[in-house]
């Protein structure tokens, strides 16, 4: 297998390229980026099976030509509301299998509309296979597996810094932008309107709405809504679903600050780009203090409500720890984990899929657990599946 990693010089791309090169069936990994010098340095670090290539993804003719020499395209170039759709179209045009870490719901829906074209081209494309979406989608499948009827699903992630895993907001390549693509994406999904399922219908609503949930074993927890693909893709699997949203958890005071920043964008006082720069300037990690440790909050999780044996149930699933590389690893390693599935095929299935539509959660988490620090054995040591009964 010959693998092309777009945005390979970025934080996500370099981890995905290194992981791809670890598979014995991968003959060649091409680290492709507009920053050729950085791509070359990374390819040299990876070893003999890696090489570098200059790639400006906005030059679609050159992009398609580069793709033709490979079997699978792994795309980490963000923000995806700008680059996701044209890059997938290029892969379909040249008949190459594709996977990405798209975390914007708008292009997700547009890319899913390319299903017929992908089937006609005979390729399989998996969109949004990172941390969130990606891991969270498959956690949702795990959390709902014991329910006979699924009424509500929340997928989410924590913005808190955990002493063990040190997660941080997702960072894409940034090779096409001077701004950090993750912060631009985040502000895009905290402003304007987002789409989520309410009362059985997809609706465009304001983000950063607070709600309280009861999380099995952990108790009461506040969650704040944010735009993400899970809210619009999971209803495709669960037609009876009444509510579905993506949420963030953390300290309420942090979300109040985010809401103030989003208001400045929505009222036209700040552009998204300027607000993103503010986030970069304000992203210095806090210094350790001698205060009591924060209560445990799951870093990536899914929460569901439904019916089993005639009784109302709340279920949840989350990771005990993240893959090495913190949130960068949690986003890019799942992307590279698609390669064994591509190698062995998908029982002849072609088209454009979300992770929950084509990947088996147990097999995926079994592979992911092998790449998590301090985790041994199979996925039972990685995924917590808890449940409790609601009050009658």
From TrEMBL:
Query: Which residues belong to any copy of the Saccharopine dehydrogenase NADP binding domain?
Result: 3-126
- Protein name, UniProt field: Saccharopine dehydrogenase-like NADP-dependent oxidoreductase
The organism's place on the tree of life at top rank: Bacteria
Which Gene3D superfamilies would you find in this protein's record?
Dihydrodipicolinate Reductase, domain 2 (3.30.360.10), NAD(P)-binding Rossmann-like Domain (3.40.50.720)
Q: What's the source species for this entry?
A: Rhizobium lusitanum
